[in-house]
């Protein structure tokens, strides 16, 4: 039984949606679906996946857009860290402001919550929640064996922005140094935007050092 990862950009801001699945049981978890539901559903159907849940690394609109519709299409629930629930609920306003749109504001559906140390299972594989505030108060990463789905906490050669409501540069640096840089250097990092990296590469190249 092998853990499979399919990560691809979605939406206007090209946030990475990641589908984590077990190649034998076909159980799957969708992380940060963004706004491209047709592509996600096509991949789910093509791979014959049984999606168990939607997981949000944080509450910014480019990672959560259309989550409610995807819940209905797949018959699953969504979870996010409780500290980001207010950001999740207000994400449509932020989206309209940043895109300078006057379209009607959608209402975000209720979400479940996850916290530091919670476990998400995909077949026999376990993903552990790591709370990494800084980009947002409730930002989290999901660590499977040797694979870190980092959301907007850590990018290749860069880190998440901290100038949005609830962001903190000092908190982000602390999260990265004390929670992510303690992981093995060969840990693969799937970033919320852009290409993958590794913990070892970021230890050598990250501007926070």
From TrEMBL:
Report the CDD domains cross-referenced here.
Answer: metallo-hydrolase-like_MBL-fold
Superkingdom of the source? Eukaryota
From which source organism is this entry? Answer: Blattamonas nauphoetae
Return one GO MF term: hydroxyacylglutathione hydrolase activity
Q: Is Zinc a UniProt keyword of this protein?
A: yes
Give the matching Pfam families: Lactamase_B
Official protein name in the record: Hydroxyacylglutathione hydrolase GloC
SUPFAM superfamilies from the UniProt entry: Metallo-hydrolase/oxidoreductase
UniProt keyword terms in alphabetical order: Hydrolase, Metal-binding, Zinc
């Amino acid at each position: 039984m092998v853990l499979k990862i399919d990560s691809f950009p979605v939406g206007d801001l090209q946030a990475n949606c990641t589908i984590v699945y077990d190649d034998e049981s076909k159980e799957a978890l969708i992380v940060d679906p963004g706004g491209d539901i047709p592509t996600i559903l096509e991949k789910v159907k093509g791979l014959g996946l049984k999606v168990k849940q939607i997981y949000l690394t944080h509450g910014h609109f480019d990672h959560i857009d259309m989550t409610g519709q995807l819940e209905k299409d797949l018959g699953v629930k969504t979870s996010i860290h409780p500290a980001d629930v207010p950001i999740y609920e207000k994400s449509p306003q932020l989206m309209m402001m940043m895109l300078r749109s006057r379209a009607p504001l959608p209402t975000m559906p209720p979400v479940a919550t996850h916290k530091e140390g919670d476990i998400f299972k995909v077949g026999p594989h376990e993903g552990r929640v790591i709370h990494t505030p800084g980009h947002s108060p409730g930002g989290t990463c999901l660590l499977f064996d040797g694979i870190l789905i980092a959301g907007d906490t850590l990018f290749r050669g860069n880190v998440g922005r901290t100038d949005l409501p609830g962001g903190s540069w000092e908190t982000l640096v602390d999260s990265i140094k004390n929670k992510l840089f303690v992981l093995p250097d060969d840990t693969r990092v799937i970033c919320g935007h852009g290409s993958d990296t590794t913990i070892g590469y970021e230890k050598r190249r990250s501007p926070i050092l």
